[in-house]
Specification:
Elements (H helix, E strand, L loop, with lengths): L4 E2 L2 H4 L3 E8 L2 E11 L11 E11 L2 E13 L2 H10 L5 H9 L12
Length: about 110
């Protein structure tokens, strides 16, 4: 059954839904990933952005809480690679990606 996640229209403006993640052992929170310049059919040269949002479950429905982090990439391919790797990253990989100086991001390889 698809989770009932209410994504506000203002969050979706100019973005595409990339993923919804709910931990099956702790379903009180949901993570929603939205992308800017991530649609291959409408891709424009430049930055692609992945935004990670936290949603809290209230009464069987998930409601927006806050943005956790935004990641920008020099093009669509590295953004897609990051998106594929994200569910398998260790906490350390994610912390490095969130806090490493941007000039070394291309050297970081996520597992």
């Amino acid at each position: 059954m698809k989770p009932n996640i209410h994504i506000p229209e203002e969050l979706l403006a100019g973005r595409v839904l990339l993923s919804e993640i709910i931990n099956p052992t702790y379903d009180k929170i949901a993570i929603v990933l939205l992308g800017e310049n991530m649609d291959p059919a409408n891709y424009r040269e430049g930055l692609s952005v992945i935004r990670i949002y936290l949603f809290i479950k209230e009464g069987g429905e998930y409601h927006f809480s806050n943005e956790i982090e935004a990641f920008s990439f020099e093009g669509l391919a590295p953004a897609v690679d990051f998106l594929k790797a994200l569910p398998h990253m260790s906490a350390l990989d994610l912390l490095l990606r969130m806090n490493a100086p941007s000039e070394i991001w291309d050297e970081l390889r996520v597992h």
